[in-house]
Amino acid sequence: MVYSIIRRADSTLKTGAPYVRVKSKIFYWYALFVLMYVGLTLLPAPDAKMLAKYHVSATGLRLLDFTLIVPIVVIWLIAFYGYNKLHAYSQLIKNNKDGKQVLKLSHGLLAFAVGLPLSSIFGATLSLIALHHKSFTAGATIISNYTGLLYPLIAFIFISMGARGLSEISKSRPSAHALNLVVLTVIIIGVVFCNLIARAHHNLHIAYHLSYSLVMLTLAIPYMYMWFLGLYAAVEIYLYSRKVAGIVYRRSWNQLALGLGSIILVSILLEYLNTLSGWLTSLSLPGLLLLLYVLLLLFASAFIVVALGTKKLMKIEEV
Q1: Which range scores top for mean pLDDT: 19-23, 136-140, 224-228?
Q2: How far apart are CA 30 and CA 5, in angstroms?
Q3: Any alpha helices (H) in the chain, and if so which ranges?
Q4: 53 Cβ contact list (under 8 Å, min separation 6)
Q5: Residue 182 CA to its chain's centroid (Å)
Q6: Which domain, by its residues, includes 93?
Q7: Potential cystine with 140: which of 6, 130, 135, 294 (Cβ 3.0-4.6 Å)?
Q8: 66-79 pLDDT, tens per residue?
Q9: Cβ atoms of residues 129 and 21 within 8 Å
C-alpha cells in the first residue's frame, strides 16, 4: 500500500503539475488521514476495562486521547513537510547528477509521511474490531506489528539507495573503520533486542502473539536489517555532506543525516519497549502518559531535524 502511493505521488509530480497543486494534494492527503484517525480514536465508546483500570471517566479518557492525538498529527505534518521540501529540491536539481539520488531520498521520506498515518489508522481500526470481537485480538496484534515494520523498512530501503548513489557520485564511500563501527553497533543493539525478546518469552503473547522463533525470524531480523540500512545511510549522507561546496550546504546535509540517524534510534527504543509490554501494562496512568509524551517528543525532534535540513536545501536553491 505504501509503495503504491509512493509511485502514484511520483507519477503525479512528473506530469509537470505546478508546485502549488502538488502541495495541495499533499495537504488533502494529510487532512484525510487526520480526520480518519481522530474519528477512529475519539468516536467509539471507550473500553470499560480501561476506564476501570485507570480510574478515569469516559470524558477524561477522551481528553487524554486528545493530548496524544495532537502531537501525533503534528509529527505527521512535519513528515509531510520534510518530504515536500526535499522533493521540491530534487526537482530543482533534477538535471544534476545527484538529482536522481535525492529523489530516492524523498521517496523514503514519503514512505514515512504516508506510512505513519496509515499504520496508525490501520492499528486503530484493528483495535476497534478487536474490542468488539475478542477472538481477533491476536490477529490484530500480529497485523499491526507487521504493518509497523513495513513502512519504515520501505522508507530506509529508498533512503539507503539514495545515500549509496550520493556516496558513489562524491566518491566518499565509508571507510572500513566506519563500516565496522556501524556493523558492531547494530550487532550490539541486535543482541540486546534479542535478549529482551528471550527474557520476555512468557509475555510474547501480549506483545506479538507469535512463537519465539517466528518473532526472531520475521520481526527481529528485518528490524536489525532496517537499523543497519538506516545507520549506514546516515553515515553515507554525512560523508557526502563533507564533499559538497558551501558551509550552508554542508550543514543542511548534516542535519538530514542527524535526523535520519535519530529516527533509527527512536525506532530502536520503541521496539525495545515493545518487548516490555508486560511491564508497560503495569505502569500507572501518569507513568504511562509520561513515557508516551517523551517518546512523541523524541520522535517529533527527529523529524524536525530532518525537516529543517530539507528546508535549508530548498532555500539555498531558491536563492
Answers
A1: 224-228
A2: 13
A3: 2-13, 19-42, 48-54, 58-92, 99-132, 137-170, 176-199, 204-207, 212-215, 221-241, 247-274, 277-281, 285-318
A4: none
A5: 20
A6: 2-318
A7: 130
A8: 999 999 999 999 99
A9: no
Q: pTM (2 decimals)?
A: 0.86
Domain count across the chain: 1
pLDDT tens by residue, 254-296: 999 999 999 999 999 998 988 887 777 788 889 999 999 999 9
Phi, psi of 121 (to 5 degrees): -65, -45
**Tally of CB atoms within 10 A around 58:** 12
Q: In 3-state terms, what secondary structure has residue 65? A: helix
Residue 1 near residue 8, CB atoms below 8 Å: no
Report d(CA 189, CA 228) in Å as an integer. Answer: 10
Nearest by Cα to 222 from 144, 153, 151, 163: 153
How far is 241 from 253, CA to CA, in rounded Å? 5
* Cβ–Cβ under 8 Å, residues 314 and 256: no
List of residues 6+ apart from 125 with CB closer than 8 A: 40
Residues in Cβ contact with 175 at an 8 Å cutoff, skipping those fewer than 6 apart: none
Identity of the amino acid at 272? Y
Q: At 202, which amino acid appears?
A: H
